Amino acid sequence: MTPATPQPRWSLQDISFDHIQKERIVQDQDWFYLLAGASFVESLADLYAHNLVAYYDDNPSAQHWLGREWEPEELQHGRALRAYVLAVWPDFDWEAAYAAFERAYRPLCADGLLGPTKALEMAARCVVETGTSSFYGMIQAASPEPVLRDLAARIRADEVHHYKYFYRYFREYQQHERLSRWRLLRELLRRIAEVDQEDSFLAIKAAYETHNRGQTFSRADFDAYRRRMGNWIQRYYPFEMAVKMLLKPMDLPRLLQRAAVPLLTRKARKVLAN
Ligand SMILES: [Fe+2]
Ligand SMILES: [Fe+2]
Fold first, then answer.
1. How many domains does the chain have?
2. Which of 4, 156, 142, 144 is nearest to 80 (CA)?
3. DSSP state at residue 7
4. 82: which of 12, 39, 197, 208 fits an S-S bond (Cβ 3.0–4.6 Å)?
5. Helical pair 94-105 and 29-43, crossing angle rounded to 10 deg
6. How far apart are CA 94 and CA 266, in angstroms?
7. Which CATH number do you get for residue 153?
8. What span, in angstroms and rounded, lies between the C-alpha atoms of 125 and 192?
9. How far is the CA of 73 from the centre of ligand 1 (A)?
10. What pLDDT score does 253 carry?
11. Domain of 258?
12. Is residue 119 part of a domain?
């Protein structure tokens, strides 16, 4: 594996925060909650990174990449989204909302959740990066505002890049562990079910309750929010790309892959957009 580059491939200076066309987005509360929530989740990357670095103590190359490239890039996503949110909604108390999110979410992230083997954890990280790259692909496609479109495109490219690294490390471990497709499938399904549940609920709850002092954000509010998102997901979510990325670690025979992709794409569309 090539040595990791210590510098992120773009920086906050590359984003034209001064040219945001606020009138295109400022009235839309769903965009506010979506972007504020994303900025919180990205900003917690240090937590996941430390757990992963400790778990891969047998692998200096992976540790180096995780600590020097992956973590700084994820944290930069958090800072860039925070800057965008504050440029459009300057009254939002980002720090207070993030502190509330962190208090609620950090205790749920025990490091015992990693594994159960090193290859499976790398495969699980591929699931997470599939989720993030398709999420930002959706934002890029759905954004009514050009600076956000540019920012989402940059973040999405980073997430795809992360996927490729995790996938390469997965293959290295898989050469020794030789896990069956069934074992992999079971783990992938388990991780898919976990993605984007508790963290997005708690992130949006923290943004809402900070922004609307004295009000509570319930599960029912979250369900209503997700139903509104269903429209965007249906129109803009890159389902086929996500399914292909999810299937890749299983290394299916080509014919089976060709049959599975359209089937699972339809299924994913049904599940996610409802
Ligand atoms: Fe990210
Ligand atoms: Fe990522």
1. 1
2. 156
3. S
4. 39
5. 60
6. 38
7. 1.10.620.20
8. 10
9. 7
10. 84
11. 28-272
12. yes
Q: Is residue 13 part of a domain?
A: no
Please state the φ and ψ torsions of residue 220, each to the nearest 5 degrees.
-65, -40
Give the separation between CA 266 and CA 257, rounded to whole angstroms. 14
* Confidence (pLDDT) at 112: 57
Query: Is 3 a member of any domain?
Result: no
In a domain, 21, yes or no: no
- What pLDDT shows up at residue 25? 98
Using DSSP, state whether 1 is helix, strand or coil. coil
What's the start-to-end Cα distance of the chain, in Å?
41
CA of 255 to the centre of ligand 2 (A): 30
Q: Which of 121, 124, 126, 132 is nearest to 157 (CA)?
A: 132
Ligand 1 center to 43 CA (angstroms)? 9
The predicted structure's pLDDT at residue 199:
84
Q: Using CA atoms in the order 270, 129, 246, 33, what is the torsion angle rounded to 10 degrees?
A: 0
Among 242, 123, 128, smallest CA distance to 192 is for 128
Query: Which residues of the chain carry a pLDDT beneath 50?
Result: 4
Å from CA of 163 to ligand 2 middle: 7
pLDDT of residue 16: 96
Ligand nearest to the CA of 38: 1
pLDDT of residue 195: 64
